[in-house]
Amino acid sequence: MEEKKLRRCAIDRYLGGEPPKSIYEDLGRTKQWFFKWLGRYQTGDPNWFSSKSKAPKRRPTEISQATRDQIVKVRKRLERESFAQVGVSAIKWELHKIGALLPSDRTVNRVLQQEGLIKKKSIHPERG
User: Fold this and answer.
1) Which residue ranges make up each domain of the chain?
2) I need a labelling partner for 104 at 20 to 30 A (CA). Which of 31, 41, 65, 121 fits?
């Protein structure tokens, strides 16, 4: 049986007066499974039998596209200026001057890395 039909069938049998234990054992399910769907049915939600997303409701490391764009814009502007520092501190200082939201250092580095703006300098020059 399809999962949604199985859930409805279990609750219909329960509403018909059948004991929960015989329902979930007959369907090959666990006690927790049965009472999870009974609880969802009792909420009154018309779509109680549908699965809910397991994705996180919020992503703490996610920032807005506008903030991302500001970080990239500031970094590119600083790179064009001669003798300007282009690191996280310089970027955050420029964001502070324009009154923008200040993300963490790690967030700024993550954005720069994702945009391909971090250029690693080798400590040891190539020989040959």
Assistant:
1) 3-42, 65-114
2) 121
